[in-house]
Each structure stands twice: as structure tokens, then as C-alpha cells.
């Protein structure tokens, strides 16, 4: 097993594939927010079929949306190709970052791949076709970069808002 695959397998928490993160959560609910699947807690909306754009409650955000494998979530579709999404950094050259993603169902991989971001241009070289997974990758990358280059204000989550209008539900 590769070092990166091992690192991905160690994390017990994954983001729900039907969660569209919009803004970092600053409510201090998580003791170690940097250990969350997207590198921080996020607020956002649901994209599950029939529940598009539903705003989850704070408890749902804490228990389901940010963590994946949300079998008790009332909006989780019975038929789905993925239960959770996992991300990891495969390579950081200083100017380009290679991310790995794994979609899982029943704790087994169903899809995986790489995404690549160029820091000098501020653009994705290789992005994901699914806007929800791409948005999660962007959130994960943002959280990673903030840990990599600590801000003078401190803290692990910036108060930046993301425009979710460009992301559509599945």
C-alpha cells in the first residue's frame, strides 16, 4: 500500500457526497477542526435528490454533512453510488499541488482519481467533472493551504465566504 493510500485510509471521517460546502464554520464545535474531512467544519446545503438546496440544521452539519456515512440522515437517498468522499495531498511541490480523492460506498472505494492545482496561476489544471466533489476539493485545498502557510491572525479556519451559485445539485 502506498504511503498516500495509507494516509487516506487512516482518516475515519469523510464528507457526505450530497453536501455542498459554502462557508467555513466558526462556531468552535469541533475540538480539532483540522482533522475533519475537508480540513475544517463547513456550513452549506444538501444536494440529495428531492432535497436540493435544503439548509441542514447545526446538528445535521455536525453529525452528517461534514462526516459522511450519514445513514441516519433523513435525506440520504436509498440508491446512491457513494456514501462518502475522502481527500488527501499526494504531492506539494510549492507551485503545484496534487490531490487524491476517493469516493466510497459501504466502506469500499467506488471511484478515485487525482486533481491538480497550480498555485502560481491560482487555477485548477485538472478538476473533477462533478461540481459537488470539485467544490469539496476546493474546500479541502483551502483548508490545507491555511495550515501550510499559517495566517498572522492565527486560527485554522478563515472567515471567507464561497459563492455557491456556480455549483448545481446532482
Quickly count the helices: 3
How helix-rich are the residues, as a percent range? 10-25%
Total individual domains: 1
Rounded to an integer, what's the Rg over CA atoms?
A: 15 Å
Poorly predicted runs: 1-12, 153-170
Strand arrangement, largest sheet?
Answer: 3-4-5-6
Q: Which structural class best describes the helix and strand composition?
A: alpha+beta
Listing every helix as H and every strand as E from the N terminus to the C terminus, the arrangement reads HEEHEEEEH
Percent range for β-strand residues:
25-35%
Biggest β-sheet description: 4 strands, antiparallel
Q: How many strand units?
A: 6
- Termini separation comes to 32 Å
Provide mean pLDDT, rounded: 81
The shape is globular
What do these coordinates show?
- This protein has one domain (3-157).
- The protein contains 3 helices and 6 strands; from the N terminus they run H-E-E-H-E-E-E-E-H.
- It has helices spanning 3-10, 58-65, 131-148, and strands spanning 19-24, 42-46, 84-92, 96-105, 108-118, 123-126.
- A 4-stranded antiparallel β-sheet has the order 3-4-5-6, sandwiched between helices. A two-stranded antiparallel sheet has the order 1-2.
- It starts with a helix and ends in a 22-residue tail after the last helix.
